[in-house]
Amino acid sequence: MIPYSRQSINKQDIASIVRVLKSDFLTQGPLVEKFERKISNLVKAKYAVASNSGSSALHLACLSLKLGPKDIVWTVPNTFAATVNCAINCGASVDFVDIDSETWNISIDRLIQKLHYAKQKRKLPKILIPVHFAGQPTEQKTIWELSKKYNFKIIEDASHSLGAKHFGEPVGSCKWSDITVFSFHPVKIITTGEGGISLTNNRLLADKMKMYRTNGITKDLRYFKIKNSQPWYYEQQESGFNYRMNDISATLGLSQIMRLNKFLKKRNRIAEIYKRLLKNIPIKFQKILSSNYSSYHLFVVQFDLKRARYDYKYIFKKFRSKNFFVNLHYMPLHMSPFFKKKGFKLGQFPVAESYGKNSLSLPIFVDLKKKTIVRLCKLINDFF
Question: How far is the CA of 136 from the CAs of 47, 140, 167, in angstroms?
């Protein structure tokens, strides 16, 4: 089976895990903080809060920004459910902004239009969650300027884009956002087995996320409600969660990060091979803006089905029959049963809807062989 993505594990990764298994700490040891420092230094952010998944990291980000039942969060329809669940689990409402037909990231034109209209109706979002789709950064500099004009906070869902850059700035620096979230699921750029991390340059937000991550408990004297300097004292100040990352995950992440540049170069090289082999076929690639460097978590192609010999269902099943486990990233969220119950309808976000009818993610991962890419491209050629 050739999946759309998978982890790359070497002897060094395995050895690092064995060392932790033989150590005193499987969890709540020193390696989580070491991993946090490594990531924050890498992306030039001041603070990092590691967690047990990207989904948890998104939830912590929303909680730290005091998202609640009277608030609205905006994001894009072509994203994973975790991007909206973090808001829903805070009791907030969710709305969407359509995507750009070339970059497949949030459309700046549609965002500006929607913000203008929402201001008139007094229904501006408290938080915008732009998604760096497939590894390409959104137009964060422009979005940041809009956030100052319309007074909303920004959580970058950078689950796809560790190692990506926007105007030379590492995604995760939070130069143009309040919080950035990465995922370390096995299909992502590096993996910790399961895991996530939230980056920010705001110490208060970082400390809030740490508290919520640890069942709402703090041991930080600066935040105590009751004056107490006893060394055993701690306070539960909120209803929190057990979202901690363990040391086994952290050590895997520390080992993997040493090969990040290699991973990024290989993913970009695979993308170039696909583009070269498929350049004369009526399919569309994601447009990478000149201001961006993509980490290529996904390599998505959009089929011109009017010129294809077969329909989408046949193409999808044909890939699977040849052991190429392509996938759709993503079905538009507003067309799911959950959001249909909330009143969303077909036609509200036409670009995302069109994208969802004719796009597929082709395999892209570090250990993918060129001969496999060639075989897959020949199969695509047969569709036209």
Answer: 23, 11, 12
Same domain, 187 and 268: no
Domain end point (choices 257, 288, 311): 257
| CB atoms near residue 188 (< 10 Å) | 24
Q: What is the DSSP string of 270-311?
A: HHHHHHHHTTTSSEEEPPPPTTEE---S-EEEEE-TTSSSS-
**What does the pLDDT profile of the chain (384 residues) look like in tens digits?**
999 999 999 999 999 999 999 999 999 999 999 999 999 999 999 999 999 999 999 999 999 999 999 999 999 999 999 999 999 999 999 999 999 999 999 999 999 999 999 999 999 999 999 999 999 999 999 999 999 999 999 999 999 999 999 999 999 999 999 999 999 999 999 999 999 999 999 999 999 999 999 999 998 888 888 888 788 888 999 999 999 999 999 999 999 999 999 999 999 999 999 999 999 999 999 999 999 999 999 999 999 999 999 999 999 999 999 999 999 999 999 999 999 999 999 999 999 999 999 999 999 999 999 999 999 999 999 999
- Domain with 196, as residue range(s), is 2-257
Q: Do both 234 and 377 map to the same domain?
A: no
Same domain, 249 and 286: no
**Number of independent structural domains in the chain:** 2
